[in-house]
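Re: weekly structure request thread

Next one in the queue (203 aa):
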Amino acid sequence: APCPANTYKDSDSVSDSACLSCPPYTVSQPGSTSLAACECAPGFTGDAASGDGCAPCAAGSYKDAAGPEACSACPSGAVSPEGSTSASSCVCPAGYSGDAGAGESCEPCGAGRFKPYEGAGECMACPDGGESADEGRSCATCPLGTYLEDNVPRLRCASTTNGYSGPYPSSGTSCPCVPSAGASSGMIELDWAVTQGGSRSCT
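Done, posted below.
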């Protein structure tokens, strides 16, 4: 019987001899009759038949077919995991705009702009003229009446009675106090216990 995929049997072997597995990180077609039929798998490059073995594509590159060919580089500025097997593995990192999966280059966010997540998307302007920080991954400060959640600016904190305004932010965030509402200066620190029913007030 023919050997299954990813195995081979030399054509001069006796008919009842066992099929041999291809080397690590290599593949072969069903019915392969020599070691030379084993090629580097997608995501790996090298000349398997030479005995040098197959190495994974470096981060920032990919290879979508079996064979000895070199890995292809992701678009400029894009990143991908080691051993990537598809162009769709290339993504623009946080702080860069573009759609690397569609072949676009990734461009860094300019001054006063940011993008907090990895993947396709455009940089956004920091609210009220805020400065970008962390290489365009976030904004350095929140203007009065705003706060950051997962590095994304959210408008308005909450409550006129306790000295701040807008919807309550989620746990783990803080809101600036509003002096015009009679509150002291500083930040409202909201932790899990407080947001589960405790009081909210300016410090």
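Residues 157 and 166 are 4 Å apart (CA to CA). The chain has a mean pLDDT of 74.
Next request, please.
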